[in-house]
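Every protein is a chain of amino acids, and every chain bends into a shape of its own. The fold becomes a row of whole numbers, each drawn from a learned catalogue of backbone shapes. The protein below has been through that process, and both of its lines are reproduced in full.
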Amino acid sequence: MSTFDEYAALARQLAAHRRENDRDAAAEAAHRRALHGTLDQLGHRLTAQGHRLDQLGQALGVTPPTASGPPTASGPPTASGPPTASGPPTASGPPTAPGPHVAPGPHVAPGSEVASGSHVASGPHVASGPLVASGPHAASGPSTSAAGPGVPASGGEPAGALAEAHRLTDEADRLVAHTEAVAHRPPLLPTWSPPARALIVYVGCALAGVVLMLAMVVASDLAVVGLGALYAATCAGLPVLSFLAGYLVLGRWGRPALGTEAPPRFAPLGFVICALLVPLAYCAYLLVFRLLP
């Protein structure tokens, strides 16, 4: 094969490698653009989530914790010089004469390796400065990409980190929505409807009034409380106190944490319950323990 044919074959091989490198570079650029777009979208979501949490904290009266600054590394100081290569050691022989001398090693293919430097060691190890190894005998070391140190060339770790960040952001959104749903419900019987909550509160307060009425009945039997005071408390005092107690309980613990409007208290229902239950309980007591033999 003539020299021109060898040159044409090498040129075609170089063009094929260049096209392949261009395709790889275009794919890497598209992948990086996709990662940057996903990162921007995640940043917007986190910003909106932060504002939402701030508003929720202000509504609930919770002060957000202040950041104490980024943690500092406590390890030993690192060297300030450039990192050294982790490849095999170079030959320690005397430097050869200046000029582009190529080592006559046994595995030097024509056109595959170019020695760029003024000092070349004789033997299979070529000391040519910061050369990038290519081929199956490439030096093994930490792979870096054009984005800088710490970013892998394949982009698998950033994609995995972004996917995990998306998952955590979705989980945070779900927890924030659950917190808002809980904050819109009152602390007193949150799963009950407002009429059922008011009914059970007024009935409980009326039963407390009945207990006080029975205590006054026992006191009247012991001549501590007169019958006039007992009748007044049973017909007017205790029902009004029971109604006021239920009304205040609904106003204090029936209001949601995020609610600004007054909670429904169902005052007519409560007044009827308290005004009827206490006197009816006293009539039942008289019927059972006084009138019947």
